[in-house]
Design goal:
430 residues, binds adenosine monophosphate, alpha+beta, elongated, 16 strands, 5-stranded mixed beta sheet, single chain
């Protein structure tokens, strides 16, 4: 007797991406690669798992990502490994390991691929998700600290979103200053919180002690009026950090990239210095951040490398695709081949394969039918999967004149084999 088996499903928080949605993913990736090329970025591919301590040091021991969300496991030799929750730490590790600081100029590296965080899944938030990101870094002598690098990367992102057809994005910008500025601001905040924190949520009461800056991330509605009264980080920046930020905004103004200043944008990762930013999109609901990033001037040293100031971002590809699909009414356009070749009888199967090959080699998108199908069944299959049907019977094979029906118009045409590719390349409009 058969033992009933339970259906195995994809693990919670992970998903299968199916056609036609994968077409949208591919077009997003192609557009990103084209924009990266124009800005002289080159691809880096790093492993999906790393030593756990890389993320502990590179992302921050105290961050939610490291304390609560990382998929960490013990390898058979007892070492602790983690699925990457983000890619910046890996890129910096590779930069240090392969001595990329010895290469001329700033390094401009981009990546795309899956990241893993054990978050509570919801629309736009998954446990395996994809990021497209980039980093610009190099020794200080390469100009990697320049505010122009910050402005360039922001202008590139504005271009990429426009290129993708994402309208209505907002760029939120802030400066969190140097590590010393941040330490000073943390003290100012700690003092300011002393008198108000008892009226705030439990998390904020804990943060007020451990890391006051994180209070600014609080989403609890009742805490918001209190947070609005707290001192802002801009007032704790030293002269150099102020000047840096002023040059970033001046370059953005010159390039006409719109932005809004958000004093509360301190971001979840510990390593940010100076410029931090987020691009948000109204159509995304609660998870409205499309991408985020910032400058991380001390990160390389934190991982044990040479001084390598830099700036980078990571864009949530899942959310990008969601906003594109929202613009198309949630559905990717159905996929239709240029033509469906219908052999009339099984003896014509080999000739149909040859004809399909001929057309495919000319760049056409061809679906191949099956000679055992009756003509009616071929028509039904063709109409669902292709814009046209090409009928291949004995007569057509001998005469070299094929019958083509264009579904959008219902018109049937006789086309000589030599002209078939050109005919099929014409759009099948109704
Ligand atoms: P972060 O590395 O946290 O700055 O995230 C950068 C971007 O990645 C965010 O703006 C999101 O678009 C995306 N992202 C982060 N976490 C998730 C997740 N769990 N699911 C889907 N996208 C995510």
């Amino acid at each position: 007797m058969d033992v009933p088996t339970t259906l195995i499903r994809a693990v919670k928080g992970t998903r299968d991406l199916l056609p036609p949605a994968t077409e949208v993913w591919n077009s997003v990736e192609a557009a990103a690669r084209a924009v990266f090329r124009a800005y002289n970025y080159h691809e880096i591919r790093t492993p999906i798992f790393e030593e756990t301590q890389l993320f502990a040091r590179g992302v921050g021991e105290e961050t939610d990502i490291v304390t609560k969300e990382m998929y960490t496991f013990e390898d058979r030799d007892g070492s602790s490994l983690a699925l990457r929750p983000e890619c910046t730490a890996s890129v910096i590790r590779a930069y240090i390991e392969h001595r990329l600081d010895q290469r001329p100029g700033v390094q401009k590296l981009y990546y795309l691929g899956p990241m893993f965080r054990r978050e509570r899944p919801q629309k736009g938030r998954y446990r395996q998700f994809s990021q497209i990101g980039a980093e610009v870094l190099g020794p200080p002598s390469s100009g990697s600290e320049s505010p122009l690098r910050d402005a360039e990367i922001l202008e590139m992102l504005a271009t990429l979103l426009d290129e993708l057809g994402i309208t209505g994005w907002t760029l939120e910008l802030n400066s969190v200053g140097s590590l010393a500025d941040r330490a000073r601001y943390n003290e100012v905040l700690r003092t300011a919180l002393d008198s108000v924190v008892l009226g705030m949520c439990q998390d904020c009461q804990r943060r007020a002690v451990t890391n006051p800056l994180r209070v600014l991330d609080c989403k609890v509605p009742a805490d918001q009026p209190i947070i609005e009264t707290l001192p802002v980080i801009a007032d704790s920046l030293d002269e150099a950090s102020r000047a840096h930020f002023a040059q970033v905004t001046a370059a953005l103004d010159a390039a006409q990239v719109p932005y809004t200043l958000n004093h509360r944008l301190v971001r979840g990762l510990d390593y940010y210095t100076r410029t931090t930013f987020e691009f948000t999109h109204g159509g995304l609901g609660a998870q409205n951040a499309l991408l985020g990033g910032g400058r991380y001037d001390g990160l390389s040293e934190a991982i044990g490398g040479p001084k390598a100031p830099g700036i980078g971002f990571a864009m949530g590809e899942d959310r990008l695709v969601l906003s594109l699909l929202a613009a198309q009414d949630q559905k990717a356009a159905p996929l239709k081949a240029d033509a469906f070749i219908a052999p009339l009888g099984e003896t014509l199967n080999p000739a149909a394969l040859v004809l399909a090959r001929e057309l495919r080699h000319k760049g056409l998108w061809i679906e191949l039918g099956e000679g055992s199908f009756r003509l009616k069944k071929s028509f039904e299959a063709a109409e669902k999967t292709a814009g046209r049907i090409v009928i291949l019977g004995e007569d057509e094979l001998q005469s070299g004149i094929l019958t083509v029906k264009t579904f959008a118009t219902g018109i049937q045409t006789k086309v000589p084999r030599a002209e078939l590719a050109a005919f099929l390349a014409e759009p099948a409009k109704g």
